[in-house]
Description:
The protein is an alpha+beta fold.
Amino acid sequence: MYKPPEDIITELLKEDIGVDIDQPVSINLKQRMSDRRVGVNIDQPVTVRVNPQLGVNITNPNERKREFSVNMKETLNGDIMFMEHKDIDIILMKQKKKIVAFPKDIMSEVVYGAESRLMEYLRSKGVIQFDSIQGGNVYGSLEGKILESQDHDEMSMTVYELSEWMRSESPRTARKEKYTQQISDMELHPDEDLSTELGEIPHEEEKGSIRSYGMFDPYLYGRYTY
């Protein structure tokens, strides 16, 4: 099928380099008899439209990068353990998608207070379900179910919030350790005003207000002790 030269050139420009010509081009072919060369003369100006491929970079001004560090251990089944707290141990169960807090030593009001603060913090941050906080199958434990997300990684967000809660507990733990150390120092290394040296106070034959003799003892058949 015969095609005019102008159509052939237009198609080549469009297919090879992505150039569209808005209006037809008038081309005159002149052949030189001496060297058999063909010259092309374009009679009218040509408007060329180029469709380049552009790359777009989207910058989100609200995006923030946060770096944090936290000590944790991984179990054989892939769960994550947080053991740095002084009163409780925290287990992040990946497969069951829940968080469980266990007493570190014995159950007490201090331990329950730490577990309650943990669950309330995660609930306020939108990590665990409101109605999922309950006692676990281990005595003294407290657990909560992690919410599912379509846009974020639940485990990464949970680890970050747990690290933030651990960091918020640091001042409370420091005050508790300082108080315990003060009590220990007061008992083992008391001040001069609150202590006496051995032999500084002479020994008396009878001390205290309870007499050890001359008292009626009903368990000795109604006798007096001497």
